[in-house]
Amino acid sequence: MFNYRHLAAVLLGLAVFPALAAGSDVVGENLLWLAIIILAARLFSPLAQRIGFPAVLGELLLGVALGNLGLLGIHYFDPVAKDPIIMFMAELGVIILLLQIGLETRLGDLVSVGVRASAVGAVGIVIPFALGTFVVGPALLPGLDFNSYLFLGATLAATSVGITGRVFRDLGQLKMPEAQIVLGAAVIDDVLGLVILAVVSSLVQAGSVSLGQVATIIAEAVLFLGGSIAIGRVIAPHLLRSVARLDAGQSMLFSLVLAVGLLLAWLAHVVGLAPIIGAFAAGLLFEPIFLKEFETPKMVQEIEPLLDKEHASANHDRIRAVLARHTAHQHEHMIESISYFFVPVFFVLTGMQVDLSTLSDPQTVLIALGVTAAAVIGKLAAGFAAGRGKNPWVVGWGMVPRGEVGLIFAMVGKGLGVISESLFSVIVIMVILTTLLTPPILSALLRKKP
After folding, report:
1. What are the pLDDT digits (tens) for 109-119?
2. Secondary-structure class of domain 4-448 per CATH
């Protein structure tokens, strides 16, 4: 007997199959791209380290290579840099990286360098902005509208903390005072840079700027940062204790740390800050002392009973110290495991934004070199605001990379019609150079430091 339901199911399948097939092609391409990116990044990183460079430089250079294969007639990777799924994973990667850095940073260490970080952050905004707007812009690019110079100055004032933070972390130097100053200054830079971008955009669009708008941006940023950390530090111990009563397992701890990181990243985005600042603030909430209610790692549970308390020795004490350290930092190790997947995607994709074809015009390159010199000088000057007893070169170079932040500023100006194609190319070259020069130079400076 003929079954109309079967016929309808067949016809529906025939209608839906092409769409499913197309969707599976998209998913399949993304899976292959991710496999290539992650594996190649893992191969490039140790190669960079063998010649004395940090792992992040290998990932950046891999991105530059993949993003410019089109110059050799190979266009397979061209869609990767604009693929929304890959872009989201890259954004998630840098959020996880800043969450990691926050977890490994103690709030007390940041507070102890707060005055110096504020000075570095302020100088690192004012000097590059002034150089770009009033000196380098008019001198190297005469005849442009003043609004173009304003956006050039705003772009030079930007700082990308993700690249610097990764270098400090790879070399195990996150605890050093200079690293804490750079992290604190980067947060201040983000707030001040946001204010400058809002002011400049308002001047371009309306010809004037509202003091109320500037005050609102500053108030929102300060309230978010101060409120999230102050309120979070009060709530965190009680929240963790309550959750531990429900489930004290490691899966619960992992989920809680990751969820809080993503939540504060979202809140930062809502108030107009970079999501990475929210993730960094979230990491500061999880002090090891707050985690004593949760189970110790399985390895610790298995080893501790084997230590004979009656016949304790120096080796036993060392082993107990190692186990205690693993217990105190287990939440950091949990997040580190997923960072191996997401973080390289961010740095490879950042490298893929670099268009080497912009280097084909010698005049543009010469102008870009002048702008890059101003970009470096402005941030190095900020390093000397760190005061006595701190290495100004480490702090200054830590503030140099513009990365994706500089490109975002430039894209806003381009969207408003005040940044021409030639000026955009100059800014892109400046971003390339500051992004690629910082890791090896900073790495060399840190290795020289006792």
Report:
1. 777 777 888 89
2. mainly alpha
